[in-house]
Design brief:
By secondary structure, this protein is an all-alpha fold. The protein is built from 17 helices and no strands. It has one domain (about 85-305): MetI-like (MetI-like fold, Orthogonal Bundle), CATH 1.10.3720.10.
């Protein structure tokens, strides 16, 4: 009996190579609760979008029966979209928003990238510059001083009044500067030994290694320029220079009165017209996300790997 006890083979442990050994398998109850929570969050996000699109596609009879908003159109129609595009105002506003977003994002990225790179290397700028930028995070200039500055510069009723105030964001600067500081200094020094100047180092070494953070910050700037309407409400009086968000704001606030003012015949109900303008304002910026998705994933992985 004694020999059999010592010659018995040890029990083999089951090991799943697809799962870390330190991670326990979640219980069925935990998985069920997690699935329910994710479904509820998804519904809370998708339901308002579905409500907006369905209301823009619903006909007059269904809107009257539903009390103004529908969750699913029984007889979809594009009458609301055809109505808003009869007048030139919507297309002009889309063009203005695209111009502001494109030019503003390019200028904002140029200013933020150059400033972040310059302050990430101590040989170019000192710490007081960074402190001055961070100071703007705590103290905003205020509405009246901003308006007086725009008027003093002669930018009232100009598209530059919608671009220049937003070409530099302190938060985006902090994010990009932190990313640049994590780039190994050996790469910078080796390029400098080979004769490259600061512009060449920034263009050929730093920016190719920073596509993820540039894409994220660029998207932040683009969404900010696209969704901005308050500056246009303050500085722009010419209706032909209104961005799409200001036009949408007038439709939502004034309803059919805004449509009559802009020369749009409101044959469909006002709710359908409003939701159609909302969809038109959402679609262009939503089309950008699929092209930047891989950069978002790369940015998350880059911040998680060390050494």
């Amino acid at each position: 009996m004694a020999t059999t006890l010592f010659t018995r083979k040890p029990r083999e442990l089951s090991y799943n190579p697809k799962r870390p050994v330190w991670k326990e398998r979640p219980s069925p109850l935990y998985q069920t609760v997690k699935a329910v929570v994710l479904v509820l969050f998804s519904l809370s996000i998708l339901t308002p979008i579905l409500l907006v699109v369905s209301t823009s596609l619903a006909d007059t009879e269904q809107l009257v029966q539903a009390g103004g908003f529908v969750l699913w159109p029984e007889r979809p129609t594009l009458e609301a979209y055809a109505t808003i595009f009869k007048g030139p105002m919507v297309l002009q506003s889309l063009g203005v928003s695209m111009l502001i977003t494109g030019v503003g994002t390019i200028l904002a990225l140029f200013v933020t990238i150059t400033m972040a790179y310059a302050t990430s290397r101590s040989v170019l700028f000192g710490r007081p510059v960074v402190l001055a930028v961070l100071f703007t995070l705590l103290f905003a200039p205020g509405l009246i001083p901003s308006f007086l500055m725009i008027r003093q510069l002669g930018l009232l009723d100009s598209l530059w009044s919608l671009i220049l105030p937003g070409i530099f964001g302190a938060f985006n600067f902090v994010v990009m500067r932190s990313f640049f500081m994590n780039i190994p200094g050996e790469l910078i020094e080796s390029a400098r030994i080979d004769g490259a100047n600061d512009w060449q180092i920034l263009w050929r070494i730093v920016m190719p290694l920073s596509k993820a953070v540039i894409a994220v910050v660029g998207l932040f700037y683009a969404v900010g320029f696209w969704n901005s309407f308050f500056n246009a409400l303050l500085y722009i009086n010419d209706h032909s220079k209104w961005p799409i968000q200001l036009l949408l704001r007038n439709f939502v606030v004034q309803g059919s009165g805004a449509a009559d003012q802009l020369g749009i015949t409101t044959t469909p109900p006002p709710q359908s017209i409003q939701m159609a303008v909302v969809v038109v304002a959402l679609v262009p910026i939503l089309m950008v996300y699929p092209f930047l998705q891989k950069h978002f994933a790369k940015g998350v992985i880059t911040g998680a790997v060390k050494g």
